[in-house]
Amino acid sequence: MSFLAEERQKIILEEIDIYGKVHVIPLAKRFNVSNETIRRDLEALVKTNKLKRVYGGAVKTSYPDGEPPYQQREIINFDAKQAIGKEAASLINDGDTIFLDTGTTILELARFIQGNKRVTIITNSLPTANLIKESLAQRIFTGKLIILGGEVSAEQQSISGYLCEEMLKKFYVDKAFISVGGISIQTGISDYDLTESKISEIATSMSKEVIVLADHSKIGVQSFSFISAIDMVNVIICDKKPTSAWNKVLERQGVTWITARKL
Is the pTM of this model over 0.85? Predict the structure, then answer.
């Protein structure tokens, strides 16, 4: 069976979303075309910023040139992050103790925490902590804010390091909201910053329920630093529906996928 270039590229993107990477030679055999034809397909997709070329194939990446600073990331896929944040906030109940990590999608979640009573929030994000502080002062919701101590990153607006890790280990939480750099069937959830990833890893191990916030650009991406395997995740909130391959994994692992609708 012969495939047009657009058909091949669509299938290649589907493979990338599932496995996070593809290889030239297996693709050439699958489509019964030359290696050079596949390389041209990959180069075409690179120009759309949907993947990154590596030796022998390609990988999916949210940020081809490395993760940008926090302020720049805030505006990337903003509509999707806002929808995901609102959906995530609806999962918070009165009396919950929750952890909010340093992702920009988490900041959108924090904007939608309203009306809840006796909510305790633990975070290592400076922008999120500041927003929560103002919400508490205005009685938008009631509860407590605990800011983890440690080393401050001005570029990423986060707190991390040994002191932060040890402080977080003192708490058990009902829900950990984790905003990831990538989520892959093969390699689980991951992020770009090693020290921040360690905080998220600890939070997943100390929480009754792990809720991952990931816009469509993070699906199929393997970032630098491992956080946890898929079987540690309870809920994934994304702005796109899962593929059939993801549905099989979700069913097998007992993970709920919530598709957030844009506002």
Answer: no
Report the length, in residues, of the chain: 263
Q: Helices 244-253 and 5-19 meet at what angle, rounded to 10?
A: 20
Give which of 201, 203, 204 is closest to 234, Cα–Cα. 204
Q: What percent of the chain has pLDDT over 70?
A: 94
Amino acid at 7: E
Spatial separation of the C-alpha atoms in residues 63 and 192, rounded to whole Å: 10
Q: What is the pLDDT of residues 126-171, one digit of tens each?
A: 999 999 999 999 999 999 999 999 999 988 899 999 999 999 999 9
Q: b/e map of 74-97 (b: 16 or more CB within 10 Å)?
A: beebeebbbbbbbbbbebbeeebb
**Cβ neighbours, 10 Å, residue 71:** 12
233/55 Cα distance (integer angstroms): 32
Alpha-carbon span 36 to 226, nearest angstrom? 33
Task: Count other C-beta atoms under 10 Å from residue 240's C-beta.
Answer: 15
Q: Are 177 and 85 in contact (CB under 8 A)?
A: no
Cα dihedral 151, 228, 246, 41 in deg (nearest 10): 60
Is the pLDDT assigned to residue 55 strictly greater than 90?
A: no
Residue 1 confidence (pLDDT) above 60: no
Count other Cβ atoms within 10 Å, centred on residue 158.
Answer: 27
Q: Using the predicted structure, report yes or no on whether residue 72 has a pLDDT greater than 70.
A: no
